[in-house]
Write a structure and sequence with these properties.
- This protein is mostly beta strands and 498 residues long.
- It contains no helices and 41 strands.
- It has one domain.
- The strands form 11 sheets. The chain has a 9-stranded antiparallel sheet, with no helix packed on it. It has a 4-stranded antiparallel sheet with strand order 9-10-35-36, with no helix packed on it.
- The protein starts with a strand and ends with a strand.
């Protein structure tokens, strides 16, 4: 059961609130965050700006929409598929130059493959063993600053200079762009403002849906001054759980059909052990692949049983419909009254892409956010918070300074970039196997509902390998991160539990 308020709350502020159970949205304190499914008074809020999948099919090589005003460059299909570069301006309304983002690897069968720990070997006689999160190759840079240069060789030969911040995608990568900063930049309009007496905050009509944050007139508010609108939609959660994932094939039932472009967040940790993200720091292969399949999240686990923390978002832009449905819609589902705020022009059976707010689905909240400066060496940074009564998970981007990263046919050079978390360990064989060492690009967190500790290893190699030389002797190759971690921008997210 939920309750919805459209009007004045106990502070006299015009707002929209949804509370769970028997809690009254008009009188429940804003500080009791676990009781709210949604509040338009949240200043630092969570929205997905865009979901983008790399080019497929017969997209020809070139600049789009034109060479003189391009926002997207595609290599055209070649060996290894497409190589795509997207400028910041490709994503309408994106505020931040270096945003929080996710790059998700998806295979030909729709399985997310980026959250497993993989095993690989380097050097003569495989004398270096590496375990690495399967999200991306070691050379990928992430979201680069405006002065980046992309240099392709071989089939893809080209030099691309975007003049805006930009990101590179390959093949069927799925990019999720959050309307949040991925570096030390402050959240725009993320500090609560005092409400102005008599100021209009809510517009709900057949042609317009807008609600502003306190302190901003809804008639003139734009961008981050809006709590939500038909184009600025809060991130909503239709399912969140901590589950067992056995070896083999298994399913997590979400209770409704999932579009294939639904966002699924999932990470794995060992049963009976603390919760780790992006993965349990194991020595050896670990975790599973997963995909949307009907009403379920399907898991394929070639390794041993483990646990997973799963969040499924009501985010699927391709599912938008058209028609003349009511913007404020109410109906009964299994004895529960449901209130929906819909995009004007939605059809009679709205899809995820039409639903702005739904009283069944808690919106994602920011429990705590911040920036950590990362020093050289093995570091542990601990933060505290209170997420009691909430399902928590953590996201971050690591922040990097100048560097030139190379791999395959691509070299990227820039002065600053942010990238998604990496996790890796390596060990070498010299008469016997040495102890595993965390790689220098690693960042991981151990967390609970009351605190988290972030671990980094700036200055460590990515790996060390030994190669026999033709004239005798052994050559030692040390591979380092070309642009070390200098900072970490984190978000502790919470989902109010029923």
């Amino acid at each position: 059961m939920t309750k919805t308020l459209i009007g004045l709350d106990y502070t006299g502020t015009a707002c929209i609130k949804i509370t769970k159970g028997s809690f009254d949205p008009a009188t429940t304190s804003d500080a009791e965050i676990s009781k709210f499914y949604y509040s338009s008074k949240w200043a630092a809020d969570c929205k997905v700006n865009a979901i983008q999948t790399g080019a497929t099919g017969t997209t020809p090589r070139g600049y789009y929409p034109s060479a003189s005003s391009w926002t997207w460059w595609s290599s055209g299909n070649g060996d290894g598929g497409y190589q795509d570069i997207y400028k910041k301006s490709y994503f309408p309304g994106l505020i931040y130059d270096l945003p929080l983002y996710d790059r998700k690897r998806v295979d030909a069968n729709g399985f997310y493959t980026h959250m497993r720990m993989l095993e690989m070997y380097f050097g003569t006689n495989d004398r270096t063993q590496v375990w690495k999160l399967g999200d991306e190759g070691t050379y990928l840079m992430g979201w680069a600053s405006a002065n980046a240069t992309y240099s392709f060789s071989g089939y893809f030969a080209a030099t691309i200079k975007p003049t805006e911040s930009s990101i590179w995608l390959s093949g069927t990568d799925k990019l999720v762009v959050w309307q949040l900063p991925g570096d030390e930049t402050a959240i725009q309009n993320g500090t609560p403002q005092a409400a102005v007496s008599g100021q209009p905050q809510i517009i709900i009509s057949s042609t317009d849906l807008r609600v502003s944050k306190p302190g901003f007139d809804v008639n003139t508010a734009t961008g981050s001054q809006l709590a939500f609108s038909s184009t600025q939609i809060p991130a909503k959660v239709i399912a969140a759980a901590d589950i067992v994932v056995p070896k083999g094939t298994s399913y997590f039932d979400c209770g409704m059909a999932l579009p294939t472009d639904t966002i699924i967040e999932c990470h794995f940790y060992a049963s009976g052990q603390p919760i780790y993200f992006p993965c349990h720091p194991n020595n050896g292969p670990f975790g599973a692949t997963f995909r949307a399949n009907g009403n379920t999240v399907e898991f394929s686990n070639p390794n041993g049983a483990c646990r997973a923390r799963v969040i499924v978002f009501a985010e699927a832009p391709a599912s938008a419909t058209s028609g003349a449905n009511n913007v404020l819609r109410q109906f009964d589902q299994n004895g529960q009254q449901v209130v929906q705020f819909l995009r004007p022009g939605a059809g009679a059976s709205p899809g995820f892409g039409d639903i702005v707010i739904d009283s069944r689905w808690p919106a994602l909240q920011i429990v705590k956010e911040g920036y950590l400066s990362i020093a050289t060496g093995n570091q542990a940074n601990t933060i505290s918070y209170d997420a009691s009564g909430m399902f928590t998970f953590i996201k971050w981007c690591t922040v990097h300074g100048s560097g030139k990263v190379e791999g395959g046919s691509l070299s990227i050079n820039t002065t600053k970039f942010v990238r998604t978390p990496r996790l890796g360990k390596y060990r070498t064989y010299n008469d016997s196997w040495g102890s595993p060492t965390f790689t220098g690009d690693t960042s991981y967190v151990q967390y609970t509902d009351t605190g988290a500790t972030f671990y980094t290893f700036r200055g460590n190699p990515l790996y060390v390998a030994y190669y026999n030389q033709s004239g005798g002797g052994v050559r030692t190759e040390t591979v380092n991160d070309p642009a070390a971690i200098i900072g970490l921008r984190y978000y502790v997210f919470g989902v109010a539990l029923p």
